[in-house]
Amino acid sequence: MTTAHIIALQDRIGTEPDGFWGPASIAACIRHLRGLMPYPNPWPSPDQDSLRAFYGTAGDESRLVNIDVRKLGVDYDDEPVKTIRVHERCADSLLRVLTAISKLQERYVLQDYAGVFSNRPMRGGRLPSLHARGAAIDLRPQTNGNHVHWPVASDMPLAVMEAFSREGWKSAGAFWGRDAMHFQATV
């Protein structure tokens, strides 16, 4: 990302546009995204007890439903995606997010969909991933990986993060500073 891009991003989130993405910019971005989230936030805390109480057991596919994304431009490996399996408690919300993104200039992120449900542990850990509950989605993994710093080195648009925030979803790139492909239905 160029200095000009960072300045524009800083201006949009309401912090001093100095071209340096540091602690002040990170805090302003998190405030900006939290300010878009519904209150109270409909999603559980990310600890395992809260996730189990809200979503059930990780890996339980009985609570997954299909959402129809045929008209939204979602592609996986250059092939159109018809449906996405997601936890029933966040299905309507995810569909609203994806519909909102499909109307953005940045809708191209939907052309690089990388999945929702995957019964696996978190990367580098033993605890279940939010993907194992069907409550997380990955978009544009090639340029927004787990070890790629957002926004300096990755390219996930803020407008996409804002669409997720309006539904209460957490954007990993903004909140963790990396893994910008990952969005999850937790506070």
With strands numbered from the N-terminus, the spatial order across the biggest sheet is: 5-6-8-7
- Main structural class: alpha+beta
Number of domains: 1
Q: Please give the alpha-carbon distance between the first and last residues.
A: 28 Å
Could you state the oligomeric state of the chains shown?
Answer: single chain
In the predicted model, the low-confidence regions spanning at least 5 consecutive residues are none
Report the mean per-residue pLDDT as an integer. Answer: 96
| Structure summary, number of beta strands | 8
Q: What spatial form do the alpha-carbon principal axes imply?
A: globular
Helicity level: 25-40%
Note down, in words, how this protein is organized.
This protein is α+β, with helices and mostly antiparallel strands. It has one domain (37-184). The chain is 31% helix and 14% strand. It has 6 helices and 8 strands. Strands 5-6-8-7 form a 4-stranded antiparallel beta sheet. A two-stranded antiparallel sheet has the order 1-4. The longest helix is centred in the first third of the chain and has 14 residues, at 23-36. The mean pLDDT is 96.
